[in-house]
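User: Fold this; tokens only.

Assistant: Input:
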Amino acid sequence: RVAVMRDGRVVQIGTAAELYGRPADVFVAAFIGESNLLPVKVTAILGHTVEAEVPALARRVTAAALPRPTVGGPAKLLIRPGHPGLEP
């Protein structure tokens, strides 16, 4: 198990794979490996995933969401090197 701390507080605890694949926030995503974070607008919440508009890609995506965003609100899409690409 690994703990990521920020300003003396634990931000997330988990295995290295959990921290890399499902970071709790932008800080953990940036701290654990390379990542691209794209701004998105949440259009729907579907269980533990969201649908979002990605202006930089001019398309919609469905992705896991942590923490839970609000419909119509801003969020970030995390894309890691080595993850499957976005289909055209």
